[in-house]
């Protein structure tokens, strides 16, 4: 499943310049991303909601691993398709920011609601050169990330977990548990479907 | 005051498909909403700030009950005017998202500041079919919802209540009380005007 | 360093009309701001990332005091350049809202990340006329305001302080301390660079 485009940070240590506003990624990868941005703007960003299969097809051309039944709204911002994995009926709502410097996985039937920010990147605040640090995000099956939430680097949202609207998650979310607030805290269990 | 357009959820139970990314609303209502979106884009979204009376007039054509002195900025996103009620000098600032799947009422002199999200819709997380649930929002007179706040389904903000910037309210806000945080918590009383 | 444009609130008390949706600022200043908005849209908002020095030059023409090495992304929204001060390698990321009704200072090497809202204005909720109140914001050197945070009126972020993603600060942030949450709370010390 890995390709040379799946680890965009590979030579970032050669240019530890974020503190000076310098580029974090290699030129070649930046060109690839530029092409991706142009393609999405021309071929997908204006397409009506029901054309999700077309958008999924386009994402696959750039390395995404997406089930044809997955839903990706036209107004999402995907940083790099090569770092995106979506299962059956997984969905990303309008205006979602998918900042996938590291891999983002959204499993079967998991829902990421409108204007949520999935953010895999941060900086090492204890290192003077302020290097980019990235960790993958995993949203397990049947989980729901509600509107305008924030999911930070390294988060694993367990199966059926719920992060309430505007919730901010930076750690692990237990399966079938409901979280709200900033920082997110558990409030109660979610009812599991029969047979689980 | 009720019309057939005031209860858009009326046949949503006939198509309980959100879990599969299906449409929640009936085709006819979706066409009405499409027309509304086009009309606002063509006739209001680009209009300068002082033309608020014109925008209020346009909203009334689609079923809104708005006092002529109410202020609606051109960059607001109103889901459906038939579910909007605004009193004298009530206002919605730039970029407010008025997701009024159920009725949203903003009473006299109540202020909803920039980029706030008034959100009447959620989903029943304990029901396997994940149906849309909606509850009305009421902002009573002289209340202030500050910048970039979030007001969830069923919230009643009492007279003169204040929800601080970025505050997230999901329950009742007591009159003349100031709330901040996510989730919002009361911090102190607001001084009432003389005679109240 | 002060000019007649640095204190835009000077005659706001003459028109205490925000409760009625009236204009808070004098006509002449509003014309200046209108010109500024047009200039930024025509000459800067569409410019590519590396042209930061050009954007800094343009900001200086409208009264900003910005070091040539400072980074200002083209998608920032600056309310009024006359109230902006940025040091060496200070930066404002994509989509930052710089609502500088009062002065905003971002010192050397301080970083304000994407879509953060620096908000100098609020209203006096205990005064019936609801007047605008504004207080300056200072981000000291090497501080980091992470993505989508909110920094309220009067905040002083000490040297090297960190406000985590989506954090909401309304008071003082101690130097070399890390804060997260809404409202923001200290979580741990940040490692200081050698020699500090």
Task: Explain what you see.
3 copies of one chain form a homotrimer. The first copy, chain A, is an alpha/beta fold and 196 residues long. Chain A has a single domain, classed as Hexapeptide repeat proteins (UDP N-Acetylglucosamine Acyltransferase, domain 1), CATH 2.160.10. Chain A is 14% helix and 27% strand. The first copy, chain A, contains 2 helices and 20 strands. In chain A, strands 2-5-8-13-16-19-20 form a 7-stranded mixed sheet. In chain A, a hairpin with a 4-residue loop joins strand 19 and strand 20. The radius of gyration of chain A is 17 Å and the shape is globular. Chain A starts with 26 loop residues before the first helix and ends in a 7-residue tail after the last strand.
Q: What's the arrangement of secondary structure elements?
A:
3 copies of one chain form a homotrimer.
Chain A: H1 27-43, H2 52-61, E1 65-66, E2 71-72, E3 77-78, E4 84-86, E5 91-92, E6 97-99, E7 104-106, E8 111-112, E9 117-119, E10 121-123, E11 132-134, E12 137-139, E13 144-145, E14 150-151, E15 156-157, E16 162-163, E17 168-169, E18 172-173, E19 177-180, E20 185-189
Parallel strand pairs in A: 1-4, 2-5, 3-6, 4-7, 5-8, 6-9, 7-12, 8-13, 9-14, 12-15, 13-16, 14-17, 15-18, 16-19
Antiparallel strand pairs in A: 10-11, 19-20
Question: What percent strand of chain A?
Answer: 25-35%
The overall pLDDT of chain A, averaged over residues, is: 90
- Helical run tally of chain A: 2
**Superfamily at the CATH H level of chain A?**
Hexapeptide repeat proteins
Please name the CATH topology of chain A.
Answer: UDP N-Acetylglucosamine Acyltransferase, domain 1
CATH class of chain A: Mainly Beta
Order of strands across the main sheet of chain A: 2-5-8-13-16-19-20
Q: What general form of chain A does the structure show? A: globular
| Largest Cβ-defined interface | A-B, 25 and 18 residues
CATH architecture of chain A: 3 Solenoid
Profile the largest sheet of chain A: 7 strands, mixed
Q: Structural class, from helix and strand content of chain A?
A: alpha/beta
Number of strands of chain A: 20
For this structure, the quaternary state is homotrimer
C-alpha Rg of chain A (nearest Å): 17 Å
């Amino acid at each position: 499943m890995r390709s040379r485009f799946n680890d965009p940070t590979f030579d970032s240590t050669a240019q530890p310049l974020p503190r000076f506003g310098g580029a974090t990624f290699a030129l070649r990868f930046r060109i690839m991303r530029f092409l991706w941005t142009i393609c999405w703007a021309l071929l997908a960003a204006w397409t009506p909601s029901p054309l999700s299969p077309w958008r999924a097809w386009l994402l696959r051309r750039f390395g995404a691993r997406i089930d044809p039944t997955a839903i990706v709204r036209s107004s999402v911002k995907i940083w790099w398709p090569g770092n995106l994995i979506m299962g059956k009926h997984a969905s990303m709502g309008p205006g979602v920011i998918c900042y996938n410097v590291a891999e983002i996985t959204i499993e079967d039937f998991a829902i990421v609601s409108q204007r949520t920010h999935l953010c895999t990147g941060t900086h090492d605040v204890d290192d003077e050169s302020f290097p980019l640090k990235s960790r993958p995000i995993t949203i397990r099956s049947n989980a729901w990330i509600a509107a305008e939430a924030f999911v930070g680097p390294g988060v694993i949202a367990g199966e059926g977990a719920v992060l309430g609207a505007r919730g901010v998650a930076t750690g692990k979310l237990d399966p079938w548990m409901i979280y709200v607030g900033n920082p997110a805290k558990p409030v109660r269990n979610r009812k599991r479907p029969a047979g689980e």
